[in-house]
Design brief:
- The structure is a single chain.
- By secondary structure, this protein is an alpha+beta fold.
- The chain has a single domain, classed as endopeptidase fold (from Nostoc punctiforme) (Alpha-Beta Complex).
- Helices cover 32% and strands 22% of the residues.
- It is built from five helices and seven strands.
- Helix 3 crosses helix 4 and helix 4 packs parallel to helix 5.
């Protein structure tokens, strides 16, 4: 299903360019696992990497070492949406480390923390939970492929 969805998203649906504070994600293994980050402008993303370090990366670095072909952008319809406070919070976290755990302290919880300001006590450890938080904080209702 992941290959079919990716094909449809890349060929038939409009692609977009993220705005500051857009929530981004890429599929790692279909939709079983995924990776997320916050767009901060100038072709840069801040994310929590697998070593527990909050770092700034390019789109290519964001998907490097994964099977992902596309990066998805939070949108309302075909319009990218973001949260500038989330981008600012992400920047404030640059260089900090966390006790990374794939299930209990991961990239999705980091991104949810950027949206809410609560990095310690949020339970947004799966993409579907982060998608709901993103909707609440940005007004997103769909995801579109980044036209990069």
């Amino acid at each position: 299903m992941g290959i079919i969805k990716s094909f449809i998203d890349n060929v038939f649906r409009d692609r977009v360019t993220p705005v500051i504070g857009s929530v981004l994600y890429c599929d790692l293994t279909g939709r079983l696992t995924s990776h997320s980050g916050i767009y901060i402008g100038n072709n840069h993303i801040i994310h929590l990497n697998g070593r527990g370090i909050v770092e700034r990366v390019t789109p290519d670095e964001f998907i490097d070492g994964t099977t992902a072909m596309s990066i998805y952008v939070s949108c309302n319809g075909t319009t990218p949406v973001g949260c500038k406070k989330a981008a600012n919070r992400a920047k404030q976290m640059l260089g900090k480390t966390r006790d990374y755990n794939m299930l209990f302290d991961n990239c999705h919880q980091f991104v949810a923390g950027c949206l809410t300001g609560d990095f310690e006590y949020n339970a947004s450890n799966f993409l579907w939970i982060l998608e709901m938080k993103t909707e609440n904080y940005t007004g997103s209702n769909t995801w579109r492929v980044w036209d990069r």
